[in-house]
Amino acid sequence: MTVSDTRPPEEQVPAPPRPATSRPGWQGAVHRWLRSTSTGSSTFSVLVTAVLLVVLFGAGSIRYENFGYPQVALNLLVDNAYLIVLAVGMTFVILTGGIDLSSGAVVALGTVMAASLLQAGWPAPLVIAVVLATGALLGWLMGLAIHGLQLQPFIVTLAGMFLARGICFAISGPSIPIQDDLFTTVAINVVELPGGTFLSYGAVLALVVVAIAAFVLHRTRFGRTVYAIGGSESSAALMGLAVGRTKVGVYVISGFCSALGGLLFSVYILSGWSLHGIGLELDAIAAVVIGGTVLVGGRGLVVGSLLGVLVLGTIKALIDFDGGLNSWWTKITVGVLLLVFVVLQRVTGRNSGTAS
Length: 356
Prior knowledge:
The protein has helices at residues 3-6, 25-36, 42-63, 70-79, 81-95, 103-119, 124-148, 153-171, 181-188, 201-219, 221-231, 233-238, 243-269, 280-290, 302-322, 328-355; strands at 176-177, 190-193, 197-200, 271-272. By secondary structure, it is mainly α. α4 packs across α15 (302-322), α5 crosses α14 (280-290) and α6 (103-119) runs parallel beside α8 (153-171). The chain crosses the membrane at residues 42-60, 72-94, 101-120, 126-147, 154-178, 198-217, 248-269, 301-319, 325-344.
């Protein structure tokens, strides 16, 4: 037996108590709920947007007699089909941490090109192909400048906005009516639904675009790379991901979606005009952020962008039903909501990081 074997066991000193971090009252309850919930997740942000949409629509149904009709809800899709498609393209860009300020101008360019080419006697399928190719080409050029020349997306897409708008005025200043049989047929006919309700073909196409985008983002390597770039571009490059090709690709997608949105808008109003789509890119950005996509990239869902568009549409519908409010109240309300959601993203993101 050694000396060490005869020593009495050392007493374990209890660890000092941790300082209490709980907060009293309702603040403590909210704090504990936030810490126990994955508030920084995309799903949480989408749920918040969905709850807001339900609350707004429910308030409208209580306040106005005919607001709760099913067709009123479907009209949110019918009247905002072009914005839904635009928001899908913007979601891809913002997920990488970029921005696209040219979207509204590309929408106008799509309407002007479609109207002028149809007026010149071009067949409608060829016009559609040319418009979509033009939007994708503009997106490709902006993506090359952003990645290849390491320029800021804000500056490059701002230049793209001026370029697209300038081309619109170079083609035609006044509004051009669209009288093509295919465009008018798509504009007039609808998809009948049970209960005497309906959806336009543009709304159906917009939902298809959302479904395809969701599949691409969550079931393909390209989509996973988009999220990885938004999380950390340098880390994505170190992992061997195709950073350059993906960054250019998201701007191609945004340009394509903007051109498609222009075609849907031209079908919706059956005209092409150089002043169409002014500020539409800001509406798309607002819808994406309200839908839960973080402006710095890396987190968001395309379904959230769809809900964000529906929230904007519901606000506009509420103001239209009231009849006594100026339409500018839509912009004021959207501005307040946008600020609230940015603050919410900041708080929940910080909370999620603390909990982890």
